[in-house]
Amino acid sequence: MRAVAARVTSASVTVDGRVTGAITQPGLLVLLGVHTLDTPEKADRMARKLHELRILRDEESCATSGAPLLVVSQFTLYGETLKGRRPSWIHAARPEQAEPLVSAVVTALRARGAHVETGEFGAMMEVTSVNDGPFTVLVEI
After folding, report:
1. For the segment 40-89, what is each residue's pLDDT rounded down to a tens digit?
2. How many CB atoms lie within 10 A of CB 131?
3. How far apart are the first and last CA of the chain?
4. How far apart are CA 9 and CA 7, in angstroms?
5. Residue 135 falls in the annotated catalytic set
6. In DSSP terms, which residues pair with 3 in a beta bridge?
7. CB 12 within 8 A of CB 128
8. How many Å apart are CA 108 and CA 119, to the nearest integer?
């Protein structure tokens, strides 16, 4: 499982002209990709890692500060570009595997007490964010 976690002052996801998720205060925008070999256990570990990641101001985490997260599924994080000019998606989980694991990460975050907003799995989404720093890290489980 792979995530790009960006510290933001605000972020939102729009699908067909309607906002499906938004955070209006400092927090994390998380683009989340699922690998073909990922499991529910990895989803739990990813949720814990994201919630406790100390990349907010003053080395705070969402767990310590109560900052919100906006989680957006992003299969393209597993695009392989070593050969040619067209990415290969061979390592990206198929939707029927990926959707439950993305949902498991969101559920696990909420179970930890996190305020979580989401995009819409499989939809064409417009993601808007105001990066803070900018400060962005790659998280892999």
Report:
1. 999 999 999 999 999 999 999 999 999 999 999 999 999 999 888 999 99
2. 14
3. 5
4. 7
5. no
6. 32, 139
7. yes
8. 16
User: Which residue of the set 24, 25, 76, 128 is catalytic?
Assistant: 76
Q: Measure the CA–CA gap between 9 and 53, rounded to whole angstroms.
A: 16
Which residue, 58, 54, 38, is CA-closest to 103? 38
Q: What is the CA radius of gyration of the chain?
A: 14
Q: Which residue type occupies 42?
A: K
Task: Report which DSSP code applies to 76.
Answer: G
What are the pLDDT digits (tens) for 79-104? 999 888 999 999 999 999 999 999 99
Region class of 17: left (phi > 0), else alpha (psi between -120 and 50), else beta: left
Q: Are strands 27-33 and 69-73 parallel, antiparallel or unpaired?
A: parallel
Contact 69, 27 (CB under 8 A): yes
Q: Is 97 a catalytic residue?
A: no
